[in-house]
Structure formats: C-alpha cells, structure tokens
Amino acid sequence: MILGGEKRAVTRTLERLHEQHTPIRVEIEKLGIRFRSNLALRKGVVAISRPMGFNMEIPAGSTIRFKVPEKKDREIQLAIANPNFQMANGRSFFICALPEKFAPKSMRASERFRTSRFKNLLFHFPDMHSAYRIIDLSLSGCRIATRSENLAAVLTEGEPIQPAEIRIGESVQIELGSVIPRAFRESNVGLQFDLGRDQTSKDRLEKLLKWLEDWENKLSRFASENQEA
Q: Can you tell me the distance from the alpha carbon of 94 to that of 82, in angstroms, rounded to the nearest whole number?
C-alpha cells in the first residue's frame, strides 16, 4: 500500500463496523479473556463496550485483538489506553488508540471458544482412565482444567499422546488423532490436536464449534439489548 493507505483501510474498516453495529469477537491478549462486543469511533479513539458485569481489572497497555467479520484473514489489534471509561448512563468501555495498520496474522489457526460453563464437555485419556473439563476449545486445540493434579509428571510438552477423545455427556465421542501438550500452567494445560482421517469426528467437532458460536452470539445480543434498555 502507498504511505498512509493501510491506516485509511483500517479506519474505514472500523467505521463500517461502527456504522453497521457489527458484533465482534474480542480477545484480551495474554489474559485469555474473550467476549463478544461492539465498537464505536469517538474523536480519534476506538471504544470497545465492556460486557455487563465484567469487573476484572485490566491493566492499561494491554492489547485487544479481533478478526474482522466477513474477512477472517484480517485482524485488528488495539492498545488499551483507558481500561474502564465510565459513561453517565452506567455503561463502560475500553478506550483504545486508533491503530496505524492491521495486526500481523495470529499464530492461532482457528477461533477458540470458552467452554468452562459446560460441565459435561470433557477431554478423556482412556489409557490414563481420566477425564478433564474443557475450558477452551477450537478446531485444533483446547485447554483442560487440571484441578490440583500435576499433569506435567505424566505428560511431556511436545510429546504426542494417543489415544484421546472429546466427550459430550455419556453418548457422544469425538475421536482425536495425535494430541500434543503445548503449555503447562498452574491450573490448566494447553493441548494441540488433529482429527486424523475420521470424518465423523471432524463433522461433530465443527458442529459443536458452530453451536458454541451461535450460543455466544445469542448471549451477546441479549446483553446488548438489555444494556440499551
């Protein structure tokens, strides 16, 4: 692009999202916080609506990232200048600087959805006779809650594990190909996986992710409608 051309393209994209009231799926980077929201342009800054009941303190300087709806290969990254700007009507926003360019492509190949509220969605290791709640799920990986267990003692980062499966209740299984532990944290473990050649499992996972996306959209619309009322 010519000098300044990319900044104009980013600004036009933000203007369109603002004018069309397009919902966006936001992630606060490095904190693992994701939610659906809307944005507004105000006097050279971008305002991202904070979810109702969101009380977590976010440090200034944190970054927000989201994929541009209808153009999933484009992402925008925003630096938070004011993490809790309060309006007189009680609404609150993240105030962010207007970006100069689109964000570099994320290393993550697919969108992740928070699933911690679903107690019947489990990651199962048959050989270990153990199952763990899935708190974060995408087409290529997940995070599992490990409670007080030290899985680092039985799993090795970067070393494939087989067999493994995702279970939904007692009757639905999604069989996985290789599973590779990627990140050990105090209360959860990040796993990368593939589905091998099992088309049935791939179809089931895609349907599950579509359901999660639709469910998030409905919640976002409900919150938006009731916040404006």
A: 6
